[in-house]
Write a structure and sequence with these properties.
Number of strands: 53
Radius of gyration: 25 Å
Shape: globular
Distance between the termini: 39 Å
Helix content: under 10%
Number of helices: 2
Length: 558
C-alpha cells in the first residue's frame, strides 16, 4: 500500500470502529433532527458528499464555516460517530472563502479526497483545489484563476474519456497557471489540460453519461456557447469535440443525475430553465440521448422563480428514485416544500419538507438499522416541522442486504445457468433469473417482498430463514442460502413473472412469522428467498437440476 494513503485509509478504519453501533429504529420515512443537534456551524454549509476511503463510506461537509459542532474545522469536516472532526486547514482566511465541491479520485496511488471552491490554502498550496492524503492538504497542479479575481471551483466529475482516469473540474476560472482553460479543465494526475475552447461562462455541474453514442462529459452552468458553438446552459464534451444537447435549455443548469426509471438510464438536469429543446419542463427534465421530456409538470413556486438546485439518486427503502431539492413549493401539482421524490411516474413529498431552499443532497448509511438515509443542507431552519439547521436527515427504510447472488461471480448454478448480476439462477423463461427486493414505507415493522423475472405464472413460495448460511445449497435449478428455522410465509402465483407478498388482506411478515412459531424480536434479522415452479423438461433436468428454481436472497433487520 502506498505510504501516502495509509493515514487516509486509517482515518476511515477509526471511523468504522467508532461509529454508532447499529440499533433498531421503529419508524422510517420521516425527518430525524438528531444530526442537526451538534452540527451547528458559524457560516453556511455549501456541499455534503459521501466518500469511500477504502475502509468504509463516511459523510463529508464543506462550506464557509470555520467551526462545526463546536470543533474548529475551517471549511471541511468529516462525520465521526455522533460528532465531527476537522480535515486539516483548507481555508486560510475563514468565512470569506468556501468549499463548494467534494469528490474522491484515484490518480493511481489510491482514492483521495479532493476539495474545490473559493479558497487559498496556507502557502505554498495553489488556490481553489486541493488534495487530502489523510494527514495534510496537497497541491493539485497550478492555481486555477481568472484575471478578474472572481474564480472558484464548483463541480467535479471523475471519469474516463479514451485514456487514463481523469478528474474533470468546472467553475468560474479561465486559467491554470499561464494556460487558458475557460471554465472547465481535466486533471490527469500530473497536469491540467484544456477541453478545447471550453465554455464562455461559469460551470456549476458536471456528469459523465453515455447516451448511446459513447461516454461523454455533460457540462451545465451559466453560459451561451461551448467550443464556439451555441449551447446555452448545457453542452457535451466527447473527449475531442463540443456539441449542444438537444437544442439546449432557456436558463441555467445547476445539477445533473443519471437515473433509470425502468425505461433505461437517462440524464436528468435541474436548474432555473423552463424549456429544454423547446419542450416546457419547468426546471427539471429527462434526456434520453434523443429527446427532452418533462417530469409530470416539473416544479413550481407561487411567489418566486423556482429552481432545482440539486439531484440525487437514492433508495430510501421504497425503491430507487430521483430526489430533487431546491427553491420550489410543489412538484407535479403535489405540495413538496423544497424537496421531492420522483419514482419515474409521479412526484411525492418527503413529509412536510423544509422551510427554505435545499442546496445539496447525498445518501449515507450511518450504521443504524433502517438503511441508507438522505441528507440535505441549504438555507432552511426546519425539516418536517422540527429544527434542522444546517443539516436534515430523511430516515430511510431498510430495503434489505442482498446475498446468495447466483451470477457466477461468487456462486455458480447447477447447470451453468448463472443469472444476471444481482439475480438468482437463470430459468427456462430466460429472464436472467428471479430478482427479489423489498420495500418499506411504513416503518421497520413492515415490509413488502417482490420477486421479478420468474416464469410467467409460477407457483411461488416466500421462504424465511432465521440465518443466512455460508454455503450455497443445491436447490432445484438454483441455490439456497437461507437456513436455520425455515418458514414458508406465503404461497402466491406470479403474474407476468412478478409476485408480491404480503398483499392486501395478508398478515404482515412479523405477524405471519409469529403465527408460524418464529416471533421476530426488535433488532433481529431474517433471511428471505422465493422459490418457484419451473417444470421445463429440457432446462436443467435432474440431475443436477429439478422442476423449480429460486431467487437471490435479501437480509432484513426488524
Amino acid at each position: 500500500m502506498p505510504k501516502s494513503i495509509q493515514p487516509f485509509i486509517f482515518a476511515f478504519v477509526i471511523l468504522a470502529a467508532s461509529a454508532t453501533a447499529p440499533s433498531a429504529r421503529g419508524q422510517c420515512q420521516e425527518w430525524d433532527p438528531t444530526i442537526a443537534s451538534g452540527s451547528a456551524v458559524d457560516a453556511p454549509i455549501e456541499v455534503i458528499a459521501t466518500l469511500d476511503g477504502g475502509s468504509g463510506i463516511t459523510l463529508i461537509a464543506g462550506g464557509h464555516f470555520t467551526t462545526i459542532g463546536g470543533m474548529a474545522a475551517p471549511g471541511i469536516a468529516m462525520r465521526f460517530s455522533n460528532g465531527w472532526i476537522p480535515l486539516g486547514q483548507v481555508l486560510a482566511q475563514g468565512p470569506v472563502e468556501a468549499v463548494y465541491a467534494l469528490t474522491s479520485f484515484d490518480s493511481g496511488s489510491g482514492p483521495e479526497l479532493y476539495a474545490g471552491g473559493d479558497f487559498a490554502p496556507p502557502p505554498p498550496l495553489p488556490s481553489h483545489v486541493a488534495r487530502w492524503d489523510g494527514t495534510s492538504w496537497n497541491a493539485v497542479g497550478e492555481t486555477l484563476s481568472d484575471p478578474s479575481g472572481a474564480s472558484s471551483v464548483y463541480a467535479f466529475a471523475p471519469g474516463h474519456l479514451g485514456g487514463a482516469p481523469a478528474l474533470f473540474v468546472g467553475g468560474s476560472f479561465t486559467m491554470a497557471g499561464n494556460f487558458g482553460m475557460n471554465h472547465v479543465a481535466r486533471w490527469d494526475g500530473g497536469s491540467w489540460n484544456a477541453l478545447g475552447f471550453g465554455v464562455d461562462g461559469t460551470v456549476v455541474a458536471l456528469q459523465m453519461f453515455d447516451d448511446g453514442s459513447g461516454p461523454a462529459l455533460y457540462v451545465g452552468g451559466v453560459f451561451m456557447n461551448a467550443g464556439g458553438l451555441p449551447a446555452r446552459g448545457i453542452a457535451k464534451w466527447d473527449g475531442v469535440d463540443w456539441s449542444p444537447v438537444g437544442g439546449s435549455v432557456d436558463g441555467d443548469v445547476k445539477s445533473f443525475a443519471v437515473f433509470d426509471d425502468g425505461n433505461g438510464a437517462a440524464l436528468y438536469a435541474g436548474g432555473s430553465f423552463v424549456h429544454a429543446g423547446g419542450v416546457q419542463v419547468n426546471h427539471v427534465a429527462r434526456w434520453d440521448g434523443t429527446h427532452w421530456t418533462a417530469l409530470a409538470g416539473g416544479v413550481t413556486h407561487p411567489n418566486m422563480t423556482p429552481s432545482v438546485e440539486t439531484l440525487k439518486v437514492a433508495d430510501d427503502g421504497t425503491g430507487p428514485a430521483l430526489f430533487a431539492g431546491g427553491l420550489f413549493e410543489s412538484a407535479g401539482g403535489t405540495a413538496t416544500a423544497h424537496i421531492a421524490r420522483w419514482d419515474g411516474t409521479a412526484w411525492s413529498a418527503l413529509g412536510e419538507g423544509t422551510d427554505g431552499t435545499v442546496k445539496r443532497l447525498t445518501a449515507w448509511n450511518d450504521g443504524a438499522a433502517g438503511g441508507p438515509d438522505l441528507y440535505a443542507t441549504g438555507t432552511f431552519n426546519t425539516a418536517g416541522g422540527v429544527a434542522a439547521n444546517p443539516i436534515a436527515e430523511w430516515r430511510g427504510c431498510d430495503a434489505g442486504t442482498p446475498f446468495c447472488v447466483a451470477d457466477g461471480v461468487d456462486i455458480h448454478c447447477p447447470c451453468g445457468n448463472d443469472g444476471q448480476h444481482g439475480h438468482g439462477c437463470e430459468n427456462s423463461a430466460t429472464t436472467g433469473g428471479a430478482f427479489l427486493h423489498a420495500t418499506r414505507d411504513l416503518g421497520l415493522d413492515s415490509a413488502v417482498l417482490t420477486a421479478t423475472g420468474e416464469t410467467p405464472t409460477a407457483l411461488s413460495i416466500f421462504l424465511q430463514g432465521s440465518v443466512q448460511i455460508d454455503g450455497a445449497l443445491a436447490f432445484g435449478d438454483g441455490r439456497r442460502c437461507t437456513g436455520g428455522m425455515l418458514k414458508r410465509l406465503y404461497v402466491k402465483h406470479a403474474v407476468g413473472g412478478v409476485v408480491t407478498a404480503p398483499e392486501a388482506g395478508d398478515p404482515s411478515i412479523p405477524d405471519r412469522s409469529t403465527s408460524l412459531g418464529d416471533p421476530i424480536p426488535t433488532g433481529a434479522t431474517r433471511a428471505y428467498q422465493v422459490y418457484y415452479r419451473d417444470p421445463s423438461p429440457t432446462f436443467c433436468p435432474s440431475p443436477p437440476g429439478g422442476t423449480f428454481n429460486i431467487s437471490n436472497g435479501i437480509l432484513l433487520t426488524w
